[in-house]
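Predict the holo structure. Ligand: flavin-adenine dinucleotide.
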Amino acid sequence: MPTIDLCGSEVQKQKYLPSLAEFKTLGCWALTEPDYGSDASSLRTAATKVPGGWHLDGQKRWIGNSTFADMLIILARNADTNQLNGFIVKKGAPGLKATKIENKIGLRMVQNGDIVLNKVFVPEEDRLPGINSFKDINKVFAMSRVMVAWQPIGISMGVFDMCHRYLKERKQFGAPLAAFQLNQEKLVRMLGNIQAMVLVGWRLCKLYESGKMTSGHSSLGKAWTSRKAREVVSLGRELLGGNGILADFLVAKAFCDLEPIFSYEGTYDINSLVTGREITGVASFKPAMLAKSRL
Ligand SMILES: Cc1cc2nc3c(=O)[nH]c(=O)nc-3n(C[C@H](O)[C@H](O)[C@H](O)COP(=O)(O)OP(=O)(O)OC[C@H]3O[C@@H](n4cnc5c(N)ncnc54)[C@H](O)[C@@H]3O)c2cc1C
């Protein structure tokens, strides 16, 4: 939705946003490729101009909902300009194939897919006019990272809640686990992290609302909340002892669900580098001996 909202034409917004908002239409967003993850700005999926529209050829990887989405936003490289463009591809388009990635240990409720595009025809009206380079994609990231920054916060709150209850119910040495000072310290550390994460999430939203939020702000928020949440779920897993590794007690599930969040929407490292570039003026995505970054 954010991509069409930020980069779509008025006609596209009218056509797609209402049904997406009501979940009558399901979408997905395809940037990552098998050989271009963090280095997504170098992606190779090609968009070639043909009469009446475009042909898309290439592969995508990890695309959430792609196996059943009604519409797929595909980011591809314009063969004429060498810049990135965005396209709306409909479910069942000839030449489009999406296969579910198996054996994930986290976020198992989301189906992620490998996509193959073989001369998939997209009519001109389904090209997104607002995506003409990776800079335009970064505008989408700036907004989506605000949303993703809240996911580790919710997961951490759930883990705290589970642990708080568990420590009061389970007894060892004749006393509830909650009575042990070391366990209390861990609970308090978790709570402190959560309070700080909520404030960072709140501040991000305020900056966004006032139109002052930068890419560096949202990347910092996403990277930092996912790092702090890693500590929370790790402490939570520890507090449950052996039961902390059983999915039945949910903390282990949260532990596993956080890992992909740490790595998607830009990994912790890449988001740190986005903010690092903003505060120093120096881009360090590529080793110094290589050419200037296009991110
Ligand atoms: C569950 C899940 C859902 C996803 N959903 C989508 C989706 O819907 N749409 C989509 O387009 N993509 C999606 N992705 C892809 C996701 O955005 C990528 O996995 C992510 O960008 C990292 O790319 P990669 O996995 O290829 O890791 P790599 O880029 O291979 O990185 C491996 C490691 O090297 C580090 N690294 C890489 N480059 C640098 C650098 N310059 N400096 C320092 N460290 C570096 C990374 O931080 C990481 O730790 C999803 C991924 C997952 C796991």
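Residues 28-32, 37-38, 62-64, 107, 112, 260, 263-264, 266-267, 269-270, 273, 285 surround flavin-adenine dinucleotide (CB under 6 Å). Helices lie at 2-7, 10-21, 134-169, 181-209, 215-239, 251-263, 268-280.
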